[in-house]
TrEMBL record:
The lineage of its organism: Bacteria, Bacillati, Bacillota, Erysipelotrichia, Erysipelotrichales. Belongs to the disproportionating enzyme family. It catalyses: Transfers a segment of a (1->4)-alpha-D-glucan to a new position in an acceptor, which may be glucose or a (1->4)-alpha-D-glucan. The keyword Transferase applies. InterPro entries: GH, Glyco_hydro_77. Keywords: Carbohydrate metabolism, Glycosyltransferase, Transferase. One of its GO terms (biological process) is carbohydrate metabolic process. Its EC number is 2.4.1.25. It comes from the Bacteria. This is 4-alpha-glucanotransferase. PANTHER family: 4-ALPHA-GLUCANOTRANSFERASE DPE1, CHLOROPLASTIC/AMYLOPLASTIC, 4-ALPHA-GLUCANOTRANSFERASE DPE1, CHLOROPLASTIC_AMYLOPLASTIC. GO terms for molecular function: 4-alpha-glucanotransferase activity. It is an enzyme of class 2 (transferase). The keyword Transferase applies.
Length: 494
């Protein structure tokens, strides 16, 4: 069965008050997808964002982003008033994260204070069920607030090293603040699962996204330092990234701490099993970012300013995924297997039987011809997911403007188009990926809207100006819906 879907982050929804959230706009978007006969809605990680606003650098692998909580529902509950709400039209076209940081948490705190949630049975049950991660997260965030939101690397040594006597005093001292963070997670996940249930009612499945790595400044690393490559002073020994290539002369320095895979192996990968179980419940399909890192991961000395001096180390390989499957059964996973792939990582993807990803833009990139051929649609395999581009790519219209003449020539020849009209190119590219043998076809909404690079979601290896684009409600037209439905029905992807 061949299927199709749309990639759109929650933050990009046309909700009121400055950022997409789990409000009426989210339900209306599901209706829009259902009417267009789309099977999937792919989102980006739901995690609470920190420095750089990236959903791939979160304070927790389990905590949801409080910005996505519907303020209208808090108002309906009587926890905040209509007078408390921001202007509806504020920041409609781009997310202003600095504004949200300054204003949204004040509203959420007021809602918490007015909710008297401590005696609510649902809240009590949720807090007990999720205590295995929520207690450490709530304490982490409460302490972080106490120390002016500094990274835990700069907290007092006894807290950094988790002296249990000190932590016990902190839990007592910060119990009210900890409950505030539990409250936000309870509301977030209650609203999310309600939205997911509605998506299922409308025959739309959710593709979630989890990064391979977690941020150093996270409750995950602080509460489980033994699972990461940290020294005796709990500072990273080495960090993650990718080496120099045709796209970046100095590579990419991500800065995430690396796993101690030998320690994970001794626990039969229980931390990863818990993480995947959580993702299985939250989503219908799980896209795992940077799948190559499970075969071999790139290790960069901590403190380096570029990725030039890194080297490859062996990852856990198939053993990790066998352990996950033995505990959780066969999961619906998409392996993000992009970039230069060795024979061993190709074999890992094949052994796991997960579909890999195909990016149409990569097929015509003259800077890196080593693997480009596998991205040409006539070479796709059925067990794959095809995209025009991802959140890390240019929009298609932006890409048309930026590619070299030799690449434009190759594209036109492949599409059998003589015209220089970018609109015609895009229509032909959409038809091309829809007609491919790939089982799933996912299109970023920006490409349906024929947006230029002003709507690009992220430029890798840059800080600032990313994750901001939002769609306007008036852009989700009947004509657009009909165009999507026609493509889907023409190529029988429903």
């Amino acid at each position: 069965m061949r299927e199709s879907g749309v990639l759109l982050p929650i933050s990009a929804l046309p909700s009121n008050y400055g950022i997409g959230c789990f409000d009426q706009a989210a339900y209306q978007f599901i209706d829009f997808l259902s009417k267009a006969k789309q099977t999937y809605w792919q989102i980006l990680p739901l995690g609470i964002t920190g420095y750089g606003d990236s959903p791939y650098q979160s304070f927790s692998t389990y905590a949801g982003n409080p910005y996505f909580i519907s303020l209208d529902e808090l108002c309906e509950n009587g926890w905040i008033s209509e007078e408390d709400l921001p202007e509806k039209d504020i920041h409609k076209e781009e997310v202003d994260y600095a504004y949200l940081y300054e204003h949204r948490y004040k509203l959420l705190r007021k809602a918490y204070e007015n909710s008297h949630i401590e005696n609510d049975e649902g809240f009590i049950s949720y807090s007990k069920k999720n205590a295995w991660w929520l207690d450490d997260y709530a304490l982490f965030m409460a302490i972080k607030s106490q120390y002016e939101n500094k990274s835990w690397l700069f907290w007092p040594q006894d807290i950094r090293s988790r002296d249990e006597n000190v932590l016990a005093k902190k839990r007592e001292e910060l119990s009210y603040e900890m409950n505030y963070h539990r409250f936000m997670q309870y509301i977030f996940w209650t609203q999310w699962y309600r939205l997911k249930k509605y998506a299922h009612k409308m025959n739309v499945a959710i593709i979630g996204d989890i990064p391979i790595y977690v941020a150093f400044d996270s409750s995950d690393v602080w509460s489980h330092p033994e699972l990461f490559q940290l020294d005796e002073d709990v500072k990273p020994e080495a960090v993650a990234g990718v080496p120099p290539d045709g796209f970046s002369a100095t590579g990419q320095l991500w800065g995430n701490p690396l796993y101690r895979w030998d320690v994970h192996e001794k626990t039969n990968y229980e931390w990863w099993i818990a993480r995947m179980a959580y993702a299985r419940d939250a989503y219908d399909v799980v896209r795992i970012d940077h799948f190559r890192g499970f075969d071999e991961y790139y290790s960069i000395p901590y403190g380096d300013e570029t990725a030039v001096n890194g080297h490859w180390e062996k990852g856990p390989g198939l053993a990790l995924f066998k352990a996950i499957e033995s505990k959780l059964g066969k999961m619906n996973v998409i392996a993000e297997d992009l970039g230069y792939l060795t024979d061993s990582v190709k074999q890992l993807v094949k052994d796991c039987q997960y579909p890999g990803m195909k990016i149409l833009q990569f097929a015509f990139d003259s800077r890196d011809s080593s693997g480009a051929n596998s991205y040409l649609p006539h070479n796709y395999i059925e067990n794959s997911v095809v995209y025009t581009g991802t959140h890390d790519n240019e929009t298609m219209m932006g890409w048309f403007d930026s590619i070299l003449p030799i690449e434009k020539k190759a594209l036109k020849e492949y599409l059998k188009i003589e015209s220089d009209s970018h609109e015609e190119w895009l229509d032909a590219c959409l038809a091309l990926v829809f007609s491919s043998v790939s089982r799933m076809c996912i299109i970023p909404l920006q490409d349906y809207l024929m947006k230029d690079n002003s709507a690009r979601m992220n430029t890798p290896n840059t800080l600032g100006g990313n994750w901001m684009w939002r769609v306007l409600q008036e852009e989700l037209t009947e004509a657009l819906n009909e165009k999507m439905k026609k493509l889907t029905t023409t190529y029988h992807r429903y």
